[in-house]
Amino acid sequence: MEELKKYVSVKDEDHFYHQGAVELLIFNFLLILTILTIWLFKNHRFRFLHETGGAMLYGLLMGLIIRYVTKSPDVESGTVYECEKLKSGPSTLLINITNQVYEYQYKREISHHNVNGHQGNAMLQKMTFDPSIFFNILLPPIIFHAGYSLKKRHFFRNLGSILTYAFLGTAISCIVIGLIMYGFVKAMVHLGQLKQREFHFTDCLFFGSLMSATDPVTVLAIFHELNVDTDLYTLLFGESVLNDAVAIVLTHSISIYSPKENPNAFDASAFFQSVGNFLGIFAGSFAMGSSYAVVTALISFMHLTKFTKLCEFPMLETGLFFLLSWSAFLSAEAAGLTGIVAVLFCGVTQAHYTYNNLSPDSKMRTKQLFEFMNFLAENVIFCYMGLALFTFQNHIFNPLFIFGALVAVFVARASNIYPLSFLLNLGRKQKIPRNFQHMMMFSGLRGAIAFALAIRDTDSQPKQMMFSTALLIVFFTVWVFGGGTTPMLSWLQIRVGIDPDEDLKAKAASQSASNLEKNTTKAETAWLFRIWYGFDHRYLKPLLTHAGPPLTSTLPGWCNPVARLLTSPSAYGDQLKDGDTDYIITNDELTENYEPSAHIPVPAQDNTGSIQATGKEDIQAGDLGLGGYKLQLQHTACQPQKNSLA
Amino acid sequence: MEELKKYVSVKDEDHFYHQGAVELLIFNFLLILTILTIWLFKNHRFRFLHETGGAMLYGLLMGLIIRYVTKSPDVESGTVYECEKLKSGPSTLLINITNQVYEYQYKREISHHNVNGHQGNAMLQKMTFDPSIFFNILLPPIIFHAGYSLKKRHFFRNLGSILTYAFLGTAISCIVIGLIMYGFVKAMVHLGQLKQREFHFTDCLFFGSLMSATDPVTVLAIFHELNVDTDLYTLLFGESVLNDAVAIVLTHSISIYSPKENPNAFDASAFFQSVGNFLGIFAGSFAMGSSYAVVTALISFMHLTKFTKLCEFPMLETGLFFLLSWSAFLSAEAAGLTGIVAVLFCGVTQAHYTYNNLSPDSKMRTKQLFEFMNFLAENVIFCYMGLALFTFQNHIFNPLFIFGALVAVFVARASNIYPLSFLLNLGRKQKIPRNFQHMMMFSGLRGAIAFALAIRDTDSQPKQMMFSTALLIVFFTVWVFGGGTTPMLSWLQIRVGIDPDEDLKAKAASQSASNLEKNTTKAETAWLFRIWYGFDHRYLKPLLTHAGPPLTSTLPGWCNPVARLLTSPSAYGDQLKDGDTDYIITNDELTENYEPSAHIPVPAQDNTGSIQATGKEDIQAGDLGLGGYKLQLQHTACQPQKNSLA
């Protein structure tokens, strides 16, 4: 008898293991299907469905099958049991059922109105995974990869415009969506579809902030494939990366906005507290991410110089790089900051410093590893979005709300792109043309971040309505706008097939004449950028990488002993040999690595001349969205005695 | 008020997310520490602590800190609540506590005696992860990597011996441990430390089977680093890989062994059913794993030939490879078979066929990806083992049982290695010397698999005692034996610093004289191997890869239209150009890739001669543990008219 009981218990447990396997297998199967489809499409140069769109479609079909084909054996799960002895929900609950103790783990709080939705199907519940998996495991590689693969040169050329779109644009978008939705909510209350006090203005703003995170991954993939104008690509990519960060912090700040009395009235102190929260969280996350990257750079730098053997262990190097970057995310989350922002800036900083210290093998390994993880994570998320339409059990689809959200999203995008582009064009020499603006307007797709933010909290009815609506908007934008990218490009007559480096040079050349006049008058405006640039080039780069001039030449004379200690022997060699060449090559290295097709034509004979020109162009190009200023890059290595900036 | 409540709820939820981040951060931190330590050790050529030992040590320290430093805020968790309304434990439980409904998820069944152990610390509970994570996520990459990186040539040279050690040896080990433990259990009952009917003979056998999975990763790493004799390396590696598979299936079969009446009496029908289960599960898993690999090979083959563009998308290729290999594991688990066995043979088959079809970029990507995943997964498991000593809450340490297990493990290893080596040496020409046998005896470390099998079921007291004991044995063997490998090698006077290919040639040359005489008499004994070899070389290799002769030359004449369809155009070209060269190079390719230091000296001038010699040697070397037989490899490409085997 006892033996038989054990037998049954083992069987039961096996059943549980197999369940986990079945769910993972479903995801694997969906991803395999997606890859095969995409591969077929790529072969036939069919660009109307991107892999993410395909993943979503297969997810949708699978969700439909799971929902309507599998049975629901779990009859008990809809019933609510009373427990008078407990005061609050403990994290683990031991329950004695017919003389057998079972352990239950706390999952979440459920609103009373959702209880009926729980007469579910065990399979559906198992296919729904914990939102913290999105945040802790699936999103970090995507965001890190975005930061790591940023084309720095083009990014810094357009930094001012990108920052404007990301910060100002996202704020505008959030407020516009919030206001429009508040109007629709009022209308819904009027029509009796909603109760009076259920949906506050802060909820509308919350929805606005989460819907402001754009994710034009489909569009960018097509841009990349067709070699669309690099400025357009960079503007869109930079905007979408930073705007995710801004939208996440904004959502966080709004969710902890707590006016003292009437939630609808404006409370100035609470408002300013929210603004303070926003700035604090953003700055803190930025600092957290960058410092992890600096630690990685220092470790990898130490490896290379003091203990020269690390290049023999690319595995350890790659492992350390991976773990420290992920730790940046996790530490920020653990500290109550925003991990996504931390991991984004960690990626950017890693690419700027650490990448230069890695052994050639590790450079390739890290690049391929993050590329692969990005690919998998992205497709898993889009599959899951497809699944969620049918497997999520508490959808609330309100036609008026959905219609309102669609309108709001487009109006908000328009009031972000067009006015800001107009303002930016006042300052920019290289104007953002009308067709680029239309393309940016068109590329306002919503994706993984909006979904992840919406699924994080689906307890109350307003939040469920937001989640269902966000999901539909993601479907709509990814399929309709993602599929329409290629026709739109040709309709707007945007140039394709451009070599990004040739393009940059041509633009720089055409600007140089007008630049020279403005240099002296406007040079002060870009002082912050210039100081940072000089500081980075003269102190940080030499300290953290092998690029840049040796510290002995940049630090004052009395620091020489320290400087000598901190400078790697190879820096001297490289520096004395190549002068500024090394710096420029280092700066371009990442760009080159990410664009195998781009060949930078450096004539071998006239080396110093052409390189100095490229160097200058690089700095001239560093506009802050307000124009182009020539930065007086001093050739520190060649003239070590003249290198004071002030 | 309502707003305030929302505020609190968001805060709470944030708290939950951060918790997940904190736990992951702890693991990251441990892994970073491990990597830095190992890197330091490697630089100083300090070989007494392998990375897994280091990971375990850091895990132990962290477990100690978590256990004794963090407070236990969760007072409720030790209490058991009665629930009269429920008949069985549903997978989700909704409970109304002070007018708020909470959702709880089923975790596991708890024996009454464990309830007191649950007055735990929430942190400890959170650090304890679900055993299914081990099985579904951490083990597959380790086992796949073992299969994928198998040095096929050396493996097949020693196949017979390896199979003997793995199947017969594991069975012996299981029975010996079971018998010794049964003796100790009887003694414990006699001393009153255990109740009469608590611990059956099947439980002892269960313990025996799980303790039979050896994991000499530490020893193998040192062997690899020091270039120890390749035969010893291969014997040990092959044995440990296959023996994991055997031990897992054995554990599974024993756990579902269910005699009708008295569990202690021998029930012949149940016993044979168990043997049948073992064979069925093993064969089924083998078939499942291989067929996934064959599908992958076919897809990658199709990619290369029919649609030549896939090499442009190494990401898709790598993704597909990764997902299909993982699916082999998950499908086997979902079908009630053993995923570990499936993924092991999937890895071997992928290396044999698919690897040859991949683009050079994908070859490197897959190799590095699996290497990296293996590295991470292994260290996570060993960290977790260290943690588990202090964080697992139901340890039962019984000194007598632990002492008995230690004795049993060593006696079992001795009665596995020495008698089987003696028997094998009767047949082997290349004898297994005495010092190799001692080294194999010494390398009987226990590791990840034993731990994973033990943690899978820790509900009853016997199982908990087994888990605690297994954990201690892992610690003991990894630290003591792992640390003692280098002294042991020099004490046993085992040669190090051997170039594996030179070694193979020297051995083959010394054998060739004695071989030639035995060829004709013993050739029939190896008929199974020969038929498989011929079939593989003439039909499977050409069908699934670009190696081997074109199918048009190996299939009968009337199959020509089909053969032409199935053969890739490149196979013709390569084949006609190189003859057998291609085959041999393909066979060696993986070996070469995994040993960057090994240079195979192929003189460029006398190409055909030397290569044909290598080819023959390769086949001569294919002993089945019973001797060495020369296999008449027919040069099919050169003589397409003579190639009928029968």
Write the layout of secondary structure elements.
Two copies of one chain form a homodimer.
Chain A: H1 2-43, H2 51-69, E1 80-82, E2 92-97, E3 100-110, H3 122-127, H4 131-148, H5 152-157, H6 159-190, H7 201-211, H8 217-226, H9 230-255, H10 268-305, H11 314-334, H12 339-357, H13 360-391, H14 399-427, H15 434-442, H16 448-455, H17 461-483, H18 485-491, H19 500-522, H20 527-544, H21 551-554, H22 560-566, H23 569-578, H24 581-594, H25 607-620
Antiparallel strand pairs in A: 2-3
Helix pairs in contact in A: 1-2, 1-13, 2-13, 4-11, 4-12, 4-13, 4-16, 6-7, 6-9, 6-14, 7-9, 9-10, 10-11, 10-12, 11-12, 11-13, 12-24, 13-17, 14-15, 14-17, 16-17
The class by helix and strand makeup of chain A works out as mainly alpha
Largest β sheet strand count, sense and barrel closure of chain A: 2 strands, antiparallel
Q: State the helix count of chain A.
A: 25
Strand order of the largest sheet of chain A: 2-3
**Helix content estimate of chain A:** 55-70%
Give the name of the CATH architecture of the domain at 131-498 in chain A: Up-down Bundle
Low-confidence stretches of chain A: 1-16, 513-525, 571-646
Tell how many strands the DSSP assignment of chain A holds: 3
Q: Write the CATH fold name of the domain at 131-498 in chain A.
A: Na+/H+ antiporter like fold
* CATH classification, class level of the domain at 131-498 in chain A: Mainly Alpha
How many angstroms separate the termini of chain A?
A: 89 Å
Strand content range of chain A: under 5%
Mean pLDDT figure of chain A: 73
What shape does the CA trace of chain A take? Answer: globular
Radius of gyration of chain A: 27 Å
GO cellular component, one term (chains A, B): recycling endosome membrane
Subcellular location (chains A, B): Cell membrane; Recycling endosome membrane
Domain Cation/H+ exchanger transmembrane (chains A, B): 33-491
Membrane topology (chains A, B): Multi-pass membrane protein
